[in-house]
Amino acid sequence: MSAFAPRSASQAGAPPTQSNLDILHSTFVANASPAPSQEYEKLCRIVLQRRLRNLFGLSALAASAALAIAIFDPKELPASLFNIVPLVLFTPIAFLGALPVLVLRKRTLTTVRPPLPTLFARFSSLRTRTSSVPVLIAYLLAVAFLHISYIWAASWASEDAQLGFFFFHQGRDAWQLNERRVVLSLLHVALALSATVQHVTQDRSQVVFDDESSATIPTRLASRGRPRLVAAFGSATKAWVASWSTYVLFRRPVLRFFLAHVLPVWTRTHLFSMMRYNGAMSLTLAARAFSSTLFIFLVIEATHVLFEVYATQPMVVSKFGSSPNQVLLSGLRSSDPYFQQFTFLELATLTLRDASRRQAIFKDVRPGSTTAGAWAEISRECLLLLGTELQRAKGRGRLPDTSSAFSPASVSSASAGQASDRPQGPNRAAIKSGDVFQPTRPSLFDKVAAAATSSSSASLGSSPAAQSATAALTTGVAAQRAQQAVSSALNVATSAISRVPAVLQSSALVPSAVSDAAVAARKAAEAAPPPANVADVAGVEHSIARFVPAFLRGGVFDVAIEYRVTNCVKRRHEVVCAIQALSNLVCASLTEDPYGVAQRDIPKILEAFVRFLSVVKSLRAELEDVAEQVSGGQEEKERARKLVQREVGEVEEALQAGAKAILTEFAEYLGEFRFPTQIAAQLQLLVDWGG
């Protein structure tokens, strides 16, 4: 029998039809059931180990292809098309150059870490991050192996034996320093330093789960590899132009300085070749500098692309465990966000495509046990994630303080807030399938209250103190002390003025507490620093920004749009998967749930979706306004708008689609639900207008 059948006398234990959303008001709740095993992580590691072997083979193949491109010489056609021997001999050394990058990515694997706020903060992280030194060592090792493989492969292919040694001997002359080898070595060391800076500033240790969860590995490699290939050619061209220009300009002054002031006289016999021939005029050396630079960038970028694709390819491993439902639950409760993303991906996929797994979740019921059934536990973990991210989006990137979350004062205030937020039984409404927008006739008391409220709100919002305080609160995030003062003063003023009639607000009968609060709010707003001069970081950056010209300050000290957006939706991909999983399970429960365990939680899930949707809509509107103010022209503004659409708009679309799917599936039983009036009104909009 369906959970939405009419109530009868025999249904003593019928499931509730009213929403009860305590789980979103108290995010930090300890698990009621004992912690499951880490079986999901163990199964994932087995799959990842097999993928690592494939990754090694493809990395060697990519290194061999890049080496073939690097040693190709158009002047030696068609012989240069058959450089098989140098490729066979030096491809293993080129693979050893890709190996340190693979080890580095595997050892420093991380996820869901937002970018640093400003360009200055990203560059200053080179000094503060403890991982900078291991990254530098890894890239130096990689470049050393790639340098050796290229030098000797090019020497073998061109039959130039002198290219591979730092010193060469001609006839009866002394051993001469090989300028070509020195120049290429210095160039490659500079490339290693540049790769280190790029790795740390762009946080390339983080893996990003894209939206191509249903695509195969070759498809994802092609989609990710094409832009990286173009980027590798561009980076190689820029690095070659910069390095060769520096070499041409500073070769003669540097050589003269060393000969005159640093090196002893006896070394000049070993530098006779450098003094006689100018290496900056060698077209062959310039071509080898570019080809070796391109070779290094191609190998490094190919290694990064291969690792990111194999490290984020979705997997279905829970069915291989002893208890598939408990394996899924162990992945949802994993302490590592990396494995949690795999779990949410698998949960969203199997709830959409696998009817047998959905039925197994519904039938896994344990009455009288300390461990609840599979549906209760899985839906609880999904709602906990939604609750945490709802609080993050509501706080615009900041979660509530957990240090005092369990103090008596916080518990009492939280319960009072919940009681005020959720109307009681008589104030709950149902969703109707007819026209619910019937005009109601307001009473006299309603008219008087509306007039007083609108006049007091308008008088308070039009004051200069309120406007400046609002600007300081919405724009200057880092000015925390000024924000607290303005916020507390405005709260006192608002609560006091709202109780005073509009006629008396401008007279001398206003209580002193109201006037003092307004004066405090005005002083706090005037004392706060201008929002444009306040960055969203603290420390030395504030002091340095004062001495930077205004036209340079924006690009270096402005808070990036990526930082603002990703902080507010930090776990966007997991949230979308959790919404899809809940929606799929609830919609399938109408025909596949024999006990009605999922249907009793429909009011709670719909209320969670609606509350999250209202927060996401306001967040998207704010971020779109921020995107319109991004400096850099229309191209940067368009990029910012696309970022907001991808990160925030995807969550909004998933919430709307999930709520509409549930409402459509259970349209026949909508009258059985009871919601708070505000939630019912928003759900009614979804039923009548689709949003």
Automatic annotation (TrEMBL):
Compositionally biased intervals (Low complexity): 403-420
InterPro entries: Nucleoporin_prot_Ndc1/Nup
Region (Disordered): 396-438
Keyword Magnesium attached: no
Family the UniProt entry places it in: Belongs to the NDC1 family.
Keyword Magnesium: no
Residue ranges crossing the lipid bilayer per the database entry: 55-72, 84-104, 132-153
A single MF term (Gene Ontology): protein-macromolecule adaptor activity
Pfam family membership, one: Ndc1_Nup
GO cellular component: nuclear membrane; nuclear pore transmembrane ring; spindle pole body
Protein name: Nucleoporin NDC1
Membrane topology: Multi-pass membrane protein
The entry's keywords: Membrane, mRNA transport, Nuclear pore complex, Nucleus, Protein transport, Translocation, Transmembrane, Transmembrane helix, Transport
